[in-house]
């Protein structure tokens, strides 16, 4: 039987649940693998779980393939508004920002809210003022808009745009959970939100218990999917409730996602860990890019049932695996 120290540390990353076009799926998988490697490098060096999830999510925010940071989708006015959250499982401290416009890495601003204020969330111009007071550099709004996100925005303005298809083809919210060598747990989630959303719309990501939650006594979850549905069931905290009731990290993730689907017809995905370093990457959507790093092994996948592994030194352990990391949800 594995002891705790045999399993720790671990970092698990997601690049968003939904429908990822084939021409972007390889970039999405490469992106989450790179982020997981970076987070694990910090953990392997004795760094904290908070530093690891911040590094992983910052890398994804800097990757234009994802709906966070410089790849964020646009609101109805063609502008970027981003949300992010971090949570420390040791203290239950959390920090979040919402509707921020000119920050390259909202996840780092969220951590400053946690560390430097007595508040849990700052929004819009108030968050920008705080960023300036902390010396966080501002970037031009245009630098966060990619050709791809502008194309999706323009296409969805058409009078005959299909409301379901309008949310397809976007890269997703990004997030990470980790357990470090001290057994401390953290989560981080960042997003550009929903395609062509109303100005000022805030989704699940910055809401504690919805976009993420971390508690050393139970575990951590970072979510992705339809934000309004996730908020209705407080998905991250719901999954941890099931873990408190004795469910495994995988079973608890499945139960939470299945409830969201049956109760409010919401699809999504999660990455989850427990205090022993057991982890899961589960989703009810068509796809979710994910990667995990533990005991010198990189795990990753995109479709349900897909689980590839390779050594963190780069040598493949399984060529084109059919190992079932997950099964279809309800």
Q: What features would you highlight for this structure?
A:
alpha+beta; about 325 residues; Glutamine Phosphoribosylpyrophosphate, subunit 1, domain 1; 9-stranded mixed beta sheet
Q: Quick gist of this model?
A:
This protein is 32% helix and 24% strand. The chain is α+β, with helices and mostly antiparallel strands and 330 residues long.
Describe this structure in words.
- This protein is an alpha+beta fold.
- The chain has one domain: (Glycosyl)asparaginase (Glutamine Phosphoribosylpyrophosphate, subunit 1, domain 1, 4-Layer Sandwich), CATH 3.60.20.30.
- It is 32% helix and 24% strand.
- The protein has helices at 4-7, 22-44, 49-61, 106-116, 124-133, 147-156, 227-233, 235-244, 249-264; strands at 10-18, 82-88, 94-100, 121-123, 174-179, 185-191, 212-215, 219-225, 268-273, 279-283, 287-294, 297-303, 308-311.
- The strands form 2 sheets. Strands 4-3-2-6-5-1-11-12-13 form a 9-stranded mixed beta sheet. A 4-stranded antiparallel beta sheet has the order 7-8-9-10.
- Helix 2 (22-44) runs antiparallel to helix 3 (49-61), helix 7 (227-233) crosses helix 9 and helix 8 packs across helix 9 (249-264).
- The longest helix has 23 residues, at 22-44.
């Amino acid at each position: 039987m594995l002891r705790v120290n045999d399993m720790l540390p671990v970092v698990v990353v997601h690049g968003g649940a939904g429908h990822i076009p084939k021409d972007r799926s390889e970039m999405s998988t490469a992106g989450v693998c790179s982020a997981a490697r970076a987070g694990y490098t910090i953990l392997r060096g004795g760094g904290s779980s908070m530093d690891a999830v911040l590094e992983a999510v910052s890398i994804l925010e800097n990757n234009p393939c994802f709906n966070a940071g410089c790849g964020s989708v646009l609101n109805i006015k063609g502008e970027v508004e981003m949300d992010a959250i971090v949570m420390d499982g040791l203290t239950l401290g959390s920090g979040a920002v919402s509707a921020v416009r000119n920050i390259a890495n909202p996840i780092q601003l969220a951590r400053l809210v946690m560390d430097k204020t007595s508040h849990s969330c700052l929004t819009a111009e108030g968050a920008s003022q705080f960023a300036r007071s902390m010396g966080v550099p501002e970037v031009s709004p245009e630098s966060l808009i990619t050709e791809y996100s502008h194309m999706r925005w323009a296409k969805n303005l058409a009078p005959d745009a299909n409301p379901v298809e309008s949310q397809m083809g976007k890269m997703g919210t990004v997030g990470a959970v980790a357990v470090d060598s001290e057994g401390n747990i953290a989560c981080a989630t960042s997003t550009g939100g929903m395609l062509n959303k109303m100005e000022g719309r805030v989704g699940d990501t910055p809401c504690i218990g919805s976009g993420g939650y971390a508690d050393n006594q139970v575990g951590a979850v970072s979510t992705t999917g339809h934000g309004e549905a996730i908020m209705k069931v407080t998905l991250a905290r719901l999954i941890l409730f099931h873990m408190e009731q004795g469910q495994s990290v995988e079973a608890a993730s499945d139960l939470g996602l299945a409830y969201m689907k049956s109760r409010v017809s919401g699809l999504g995905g999660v990455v989850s860990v427990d205090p022993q370093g057991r982890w899961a990457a589960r989703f009810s959507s068509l796809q979710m890019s994910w990667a995990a790093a533990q005991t010198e092994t990189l795990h990753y996948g995109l479709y349900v049932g897909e689980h590839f592994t390779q050594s963190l030194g780069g040598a493949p352990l399984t060529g084109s695996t059919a190992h079932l990391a997950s099964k279809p949800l309800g």
